[in-house]
Each structure stands twice: as C-alpha cells, then as structure tokens.
C-alpha cells in the first residue's frame, strides 16, 4: 500500500507539502498541488486514518451506547445521530447493552480503547455507569440522551415526559373519557416514572378516580403492551381508554384488543407516546405524543461536538417539547 512518502517522492516534494494538500490546511501552488494529486491518483494512495488521528490527537469517531434497536424509537434516533455525524465528518461506533451491565462496561472499555472523541448514551436501563470506568479518561466528552442516572458530569438531553403524559391524559379527558387506564414503562426508569406521574396528576386535577387495577406495568417493549392490555380487558369493568407510555406497547395493546374481537377507536380508545413512523400506518392510525427524534439526534451530536471543542464548558440539561399528534385511535365520546 502506498505511503505519504511514496507520494512525496513521486511528486518530488516534501511529505509535509503532501500533508498540506491532503488536509487543505495551508496554501500550496496550483502547479505543485496538481503534481501531488496526480501522484496520489497514480499510486492509489489513501491517507491513514490512524496516522491522521495520532497527529491530530483526535479520531473523529463518536461512540454510542444503545439499549436495543428493535424499538423503532431508538432506531429512528440512531438514524438521525449517524446522519449528523456523517455530515460533520465523524464516524459512529454503535454498541448495544440490552440491559446487561457487564456488557455495557465492556463496550465502554472497547470504545475508550478506540480513542473515541466523545460518547453518546441512549439507554433505558437504570443502572448507572460506574464512575471509575472513566478514571483513565476523566474528561471524556459525554451526552446522555433520555437516560439520566449518571454520577459523572455530562450534558443531558431528554423529553419532558411529565408534560407529555399530562397532554395525553388531558386529551382523553377532553374526549369525554373517565375510566382511563395507564400501561406504564418500567417504573425504575426516569422517563417512565414521569409519564406515570403525569397520568396521575391529570386524573387528580380532573377529579377522576384512579383505579389501582387500571395501572398495568410494562417495560416499553411490544410484548409487555400486549400482556398488559390482556390484563385490562379481563377486568370485570374494563377501561374505556388507555394511555400507553410508548408506541411499542400501544402496538402490543392493539393486538390484544383485536384478538378480543374489539376495535381500537370504537370499542376502546388508545393514545401512545413517541410518534414512531409506524404509528401512522396502524389501523386505525395511532394518536400519540410526538417526541422530536430527528431534533434529538441532531442536538445530541451538536452538543457533543461543542463539548469536544470546549471540554471545560459547564454541562447543560436540554429538555425537548412533546407535541400531541391526533389521529384516529381515540373516539370522541358524546356523553
Ligand atoms: O419507546 C422507548 C422509550 O424509551 C421512549 O419513550 C424513550 O423516551 C425512552 O425512554
């Protein structure tokens, strides 16, 4: 494989001149530039990323920890993160954790050995990363997306889940519903707790009864929504509307409702949370709370790159605004 020295020799210039042409970081006369570019083409030379990173003390690589990708919320955010990394000249290395703490620790170690310039975490786990793992990289720039239980200082970007849940339940109440149930996320997760609190607050403020049997705990995954809805439908007096704390569980709930011979938006109303792309294509299309996933991905990358270039700047908590997206899974009651 040709080296920079081979290019310099063929073009009869110094290696530093070749470097200036490759990095375009200093003026080089058109005649010499074209000689060097011709030599690069003739030798099919490709600059060494490793050599460049050693010189620049940066790899232009971002690491990302992700719980799982089978939930469309996460995969849609990752798509936005990777697109923004690419547009800003960075590579993304993605590692899953799937709730396994040791796997998380091992993946962080691997990412650190690859000398990533910064770390993004989009994890719904609740166990935090032990601070000692960063002991040899104390100033590693980090941005936590959505997941907050961290001891080390870092920027945090998250959804305003309390507000979003309140909007969802107030919408059901405004459509005339009183017997409203909640399929929660895993209640050891910060966002899930806040959404359940938003449900409770909205019900209390409207003077409506919160029936204990109407709280069904899920884990943000499809199957838990299916199982929780089966439980709710088996109650002697089933709910007339259900707030599912994410769209994946709402999709599971749809299956249980259909299997019971009932129709969403007719026999029972459902509102979800996240507004994943699939929500529009359900039958009926799902009314839900929109989380700005593209913006979350873009903001996370921009915040991390700012942190990389300004390591000593103070850390921030950025909160995104949830928005009601009204479709057809909630019928207006004429009481
Ligand atoms: O759907 C997955 C959920 O986990 C999302 O609502 C996101 O907020 C994360 O907490």
Automatic annotation (TrEMBL):
Residue ranges of every copy of the HTH lacI-type domain listed in the record: 2-56
Keywords recorded for this protein, A-Z: DNA-binding, Repressor, Transcription, Transcription regulation
KW Magnesium (keyword) present: no
Gene3D superfamilies for the chain: 3.40.50.2300, lambda repressor-like DNA-binding domains
Molecular function as annotated in GO: DNA-binding transcription factor activity; transcription cis-regulatory region binding
InterPro entries cross-referenced by the UniProt entry: HTH_LacI, LacI/GalR-like_sensor, Lambda_DNA-bd_dom_sf, Peripla_BP_I, PurR_sensor_dom
Pfam families xrefs: LacI (PF00356), Peripla_BP_3 (PF13377)
Domain of life of the organism encoding this protein: Bacteria
NCBIfam families: PRK10423.1
Family matches, as PANTHER family: LACI-RELATED TRANSCRIPTIONAL REPRESSOR, RIBOSE OPERON REPRESSOR
Protein name per the record: Ribose operon repressor
Source organism of this protein record: Orbus hercynius
